[in-house]
Amino acid sequence: MPTQISTPQPLEPGTLRVIPVGGLGEIGRNMTVYEFDGKLLIVDAGVLFPEEHQPGVDLILPDFGPIRDRLDDVLGVVLTHGHEDHIGAVPYLLKLKADIPLIGSTLTLALVEAKLKEHRIKPYTLVVQEDQTEQLGPFHLEFVAVNHSIPDALAVAITTPAGRVLHTGDFKMDQLPLDDRITDLRAFARLGEQGVDLFLPDSTNADVPGFTAPERDIGPVLENVISRARKKVVVASFSSHVHRVQQVLDAAAATNRKVAFMGRSMIRNMNIAAELGYLRVPDDVLIDTKKAKNVPDDQIVYMSTGSQGEPMAVLARMANLEHQIEIGEGDTVILASSLIPGNENAVYRVIDGLTKLGAKVVHKGNAKVHVSGHASAGELLYCYNILRPRNVLPVHGEHRHLYANADLAIQTGVPPRNVILGQDGIVVDLKDGVASVAGQLDIGYVYVDGSTVGEITDADLKDRRVLAEEGFISIFCAVDFTTGQCVVGPEIQSRGFAEDDSVFDDVRPQIAKAIAEAAANGTRDAHAFSQVVRRTVGRWVNTKHRRRPMIVPVVIEA
Amino acid sequence: MPTQISTPQPLEPGTLRVIPVGGLGEIGRNMTVYEFDGKLLIVDAGVLFPEEHQPGVDLILPDFGPIRDRLDDVLGVVLTHGHEDHIGAVPYLLKLKADIPLIGSTLTLALVEAKLKEHRIKPYTLVVQEDQTEQLGPFHLEFVAVNHSIPDALAVAITTPAGRVLHTGDFKMDQLPLDDRITDLRAFARLGEQGVDLFLPDSTNADVPGFTAPERDIGPVLENVISRARKKVVVASFSSHVHRVQQVLDAAAATNRKVAFMGRSMIRNMNIAAELGYLRVPDDVLIDTKKAKNVPDDQIVYMSTGSQGEPMAVLARMANLEHQIEIGEGDTVILASSLIPGNENAVYRVIDGLTKLGAKVVHKGNAKVHVSGHASAGELLYCYNILRPRNVLPVHGEHRHLYANADLAIQTGVPPRNVILGQDGIVVDLKDGVASVAGQLDIGYVYVDGSTVGEITDADLKDRRVLAEEGFISIFCAVDFTTGQCVVGPEIQSRGFAEDDSVFDDVRPQIAKAIAEAAANGTRDAHAFSQVVRRTVGRWVNTKHRRRPMIVPVVIEA
């Protein structure tokens, strides 16, 4: 499936166009654009977190390219739930046009609004809930309750004259969730009977056989671990996982401990969740972090962020003894969280640090303290059989997840030709129950670094990778272009290459000689002299050191 | 357990000194130095593979510091088995003194000799086998068969007048191994009855509950997957895993397929293993890689390297369509290997690439195609109970593994004060059945980068990390130190910072102005002018871009 960029034909009347601009081929930056009759509807606008081959990048945004010139046509952004990979790009979208309405559940919008406040944006919002319907221009929206690792998640059915689409957002099918709010399979069945022309399901766990275990299984494990703890307990989890925090609060209450929230996002999100009634705080359990130090060690639980080993978060700072809460012999630390691939080294470094300080570290590798938020293969089969969709476009996953999900669809009887495997920027047109690929847009990664958005390019990241692997050598010479004499320099600077600058002593005369020779042979311009310097230093470093640092020559006319 | 460097007292007569210079706090660079009566014995000399916070590093060696000035006292190096983390540093050790004898089993020495040949070193060797005893100066050595993920692994019991030490090397306790060579618990029992004063056990899987599954379980799964494959099959594994390759050969024979070895180390190691009789090649199964292209797709298995996603290995090149064997629709790729933490992103990138090309990818996440080579907690408990060691020094593991192993020892009745938790460079003295910590040496990481050993320092790696995160800006000016006028420059070069050099247009005059002001205020030396440039650019980049690139100012007198 190599990428063949092909510009789609203009949209025919009566046709729905679907363009996932993020989330196909990656877990993150989910964003799908729907177009009908000249109007646009967006579902989700999330961020992707960088991997180690994208050094120094803070966030990766979806490519707004396909809608940048059509912002006035956007009728709204439906946000399925409040996770960063679905809402994190909203501030950057609203910076382009502040009055695009946001549509979502109470908790989702509350979390987005708190985030937008930090960017000084006050959005237009429309609060919706399950079973509610809304008409937005040509788009008829019906919201359906789904269960996920954050409360108040919604799927959305989008109906236009071209047909009906069901977009699940992230979901799983815990049949006994803490808040009794299950994924509404009755609604799925009804939509299926009415006919689902295109189904866009979450693929994250499509390659995991069986069923995701219930969240409820974790409570007794937490209570058991906490009841056996002799001293302080620290629990780390995602700062939006209201139900996980609920179970920690309940376990603390059952074992007569107080709970203090740690970390800015944990405190902010749990305040919102408690205020709105999603988090039920048992009486007298919560105490302020500042007062927690006065509570005896065997009566306190710290609920913190940093479960992914993030270096600046509470947990990593504790592991390095850089936090006011000092971890020591007999303390217990619970990582009630997944281990997102790519974070292993960071997480294990934190676990090792805490272990060395004497703490007992409990994590999903040695106890059942985490379950996933996504439907496994077994659950997805239920969905396909209840919905019987005409066409399927698996979304939200790396390619192996999308393929696994496609395979499940086909196993339940969806004809293989009706299952579309795509990547970011694929253009799918739906009309009269037929979905077809109409083109493939060229979709890029948009890197946020510091206060800059999109200034860092893939070429810069390639430079950074070379710099990281090998360091650099920069050479400056001011040259008399006629004689080829170095009037100033060669001045050599290097970083990440060698401790001792004397390694360059033997190459300086080689550089001067090469420049003089080039001049004798008629070279007269700065660029050509730079190339001479680059080749001379490159050959020297390769022969003598078997290394390939970045070589940055600067030659100017003296 | 913060590191307190403390030089040990000179060694008392009749005392055995044990110094693990690598492998405590990391999985890799295993090396332990034993000293008695002025003579040294080394067990293993392995390498550690770098993590992403050590960019550009090829290998990490043990710190030879503690033995560097005493190479004439080294009586030999016992190599427990032929894995890189136990033998990889041997060439670097022999470069210091080529005639140190190597002691190990037939296969282990054959693998080391092949490696040394590439470094043009012909070593002195002593081949030993299980149940054999040797006297090396004051060290009485007894070798014991152990089972591991490479054949012919040995534990070694080291007896001196100070007592008896059992050093396991890597091992597990598969009770039905392919070669019927089990870990010799009868020998462990006999040693236990004679008295083991200090036990140094492999800790890698000490935090994994239960028992490591038998290697034999994998064969039927491989055969099943291969028999159902419609087209080409590629199996990737470690190039030294003779038994895994054996099972692939057997499965290929059973399904009427030929096998071609791919990758330099795979071909070299399997030739050695077959020649020495460790690999039994079924008749007419093996064919030359060059001829494999003429075999129909449904009759071939490629056995390759690259199971950890290494970018230059066969599998990654296949995933990028950069290899002569083209992966396509209907092919099957089996990763019959572990997923070493830290390699997840690389491995998943390969799996994703292969999936996009149409291959079915089978790995330990979706089928039982790998078992570990190390004893889990359940097996270690057997060892402790059979040996009943007086003192325990867990080795070969990150800190959480060492702690878990210590915990197992204590559970079986070893007094906690007799269980030593240490890190690289800990000095343990043994006399009259009492083991005590005598000091802590300062042990560093020795980085191999290209042809250089130890030239790259932690400071260079820190520079590289900054370069990777932010890139650099270098500024050159030739200044008239009296007037403060920039005669040449400011010339600005940057990499990894911004695509467009025009971003620097507004800072150049700021630099010139700052230099002129400094000169007016009496600054007259190059270093002080450089600091002025650094501050000016640093303030500009932080205020305007919220970034922190490395700033490299060069000011010289015009």
Automatic annotation (TrEMBL), chains A, B:
<feature type="binding site">
    <location>
        <position position="58"/>
    </location>
    <ligand>
        <name>Ca(2+)</name>
    </ligand>
</feature>
<keyword id="KW-0378">Hydrolase</keyword>
<keyword id="KW-0479">Metal-binding</keyword>
<keyword id="KW-0540">Nuclease</keyword>
<feature type="active site" description="Proton acceptor">
    <location>
        <position position="374"/>
    </location>
</feature>
<keyword id="KW-0963">Cytoplasm</keyword>
<keyword id="KW-0255">Endonuclease</keyword>
<dbReference type="GO" id="GO:0004521">
    <property type="term" value="F:RNA endonuclease activity"/>
</dbReference>
<dbReference type="InterPro" id="IPR001279">
    <property type="entry name" value="Metallo-B-lactamas"/>
</dbReference>
<feature type="binding site">
    <location>
        <position position="148"/>
    </location>
    <ligand>
        <name>Zn(2+)</name>
    </ligand>
</feature>
<feature type="binding site">
    <location>
        <begin position="239"/>
        <end position="241"/>
    </location>
    <ligand>
        <name>substrate</name>
    </ligand>
</feature>
<dbReference type="GO" id="GO:0003723">
    <property type="term" value="F:RNA binding"/>
</dbReference>
<keyword id="KW-0862">Zinc</keyword>
<feature type="binding site">
    <location>
        <position position="85"/>
    </location>
    <ligand>
        <name>Zn(2+)</name>
    </ligand>
</feature>
<dbReference type="InterPro" id="IPR004613">
    <property type="entry name" value="RNase_J"/>
</dbReference>
<keyword id="KW-0269">Exonuclease</keyword>
<dbReference type="GO" id="GO:0005737">
    <property type="term" value="C:cytoplasm"/>
</dbReference>
<dbReference type="Pfam" id="PF00753">
    <property type="entry name" value="Lactamase_B"/>
</dbReference>
<feature type="domain" description="Metallo-beta-lactamase">
    <location>
        <begin position="28"/>
        <end position="222"/>
    </location>
</feature>
<keyword id="KW-0694">RNA-binding</keyword>
<dbReference type="Pfam" id="PF22505">
    <property type="entry name" value="RNase_J_b_CASP"/>
</dbReference>
<dbReference type="Pfam" id="PF07521">
    <property type="entry name" value="RMMBL"/>
</dbReference>
<comment type="similarity">
    <text>Belongs to the metallo-beta-lactamase superfamily. RNA-metabolizing metallo-beta-lactamase-like family. Bacterial RNase J subfamily.</text>
</comment>
<feature type="binding site">
    <location>
        <position position="81"/>
    </location>
    <ligand>
        <name>Zn(2+)</name>
    </ligand>
</feature>
<dbReference type="InterPro" id="IPR041636">
    <property type="entry name" value="RNase_J_C"/>
</dbReference>
<feature type="binding site">
    <location>
        <position position="170"/>
    </location>
    <ligand>
        <name>Zn(2+)</name>
    </ligand>
</feature>
<feature type="binding site">
    <location>
        <position position="83"/>
    </location>
    <ligand>
        <name>Zn(2+)</name>
    </ligand>
</feature>
<dbReference type="InterPro" id="IPR042173">
    <property type="entry name" value="RNase_J_2"/>
</dbReference>
<dbReference type="InterPro" id="IPR036866">
    <property type="entry name" value="RibonucZ/Hydroxyglut_hydro"/>
</dbReference>
<feature type="binding site">
    <location>
        <position position="86"/>
    </location>
    <ligand>
        <name>Zn(2+)</name>
    </ligand>
</feature>
<dbReference type="GO" id="GO:0006364">
    <property type="term" value="P:rRNA processing"/>
</dbReference>
<feature type="binding site">
    <location>
        <position position="56"/>
    </location>
    <ligand>
        <name>Ca(2+)</name>
    </ligand>
</feature>
<dbReference type="Pfam" id="PF17770">
    <property type="entry name" value="RNase_J_C"/>
</dbReference>
<dbReference type="InterPro" id="IPR055132">
    <property type="entry name" value="RNase_J_b_CASP"/>
</dbReference>
<feature type="active site" description="Proton donor">
    <location>
        <position position="202"/>
    </location>
</feature>
<comment type="function">
    <text>An RNase that has 5'-3' exonuclease and possibly endonuclease activity. Involved in maturation of rRNA and in some organisms also mRNA maturation and/or decay.</text>
</comment>
<feature type="binding site">
    <location>
        <begin position="370"/>
        <end position="374"/>
    </location>
    <ligand>
        <name>substrate</name>
    </ligand>
</feature>
<dbReference type="InterPro" id="IPR030854">
    <property type="entry name" value="RNase_J_bac"/>
</dbReference>
<keyword id="KW-0698">rRNA processing</keyword>
<dbReference type="InterPro" id="IPR011108">
    <property type="entry name" value="RMMBL"/>
</dbReference>
<protein>
    <recommendedName>
        <fullName>Ribonuclease J</fullName>
        <ecNumber>3.1.-.-</ecNumber>
    </recommendedName>
</protein>
<feature type="binding site">
    <location>
        <position position="396"/>
    </location>
    <ligand>
        <name>Zn(2+)</name>
    </ligand>
</feature>
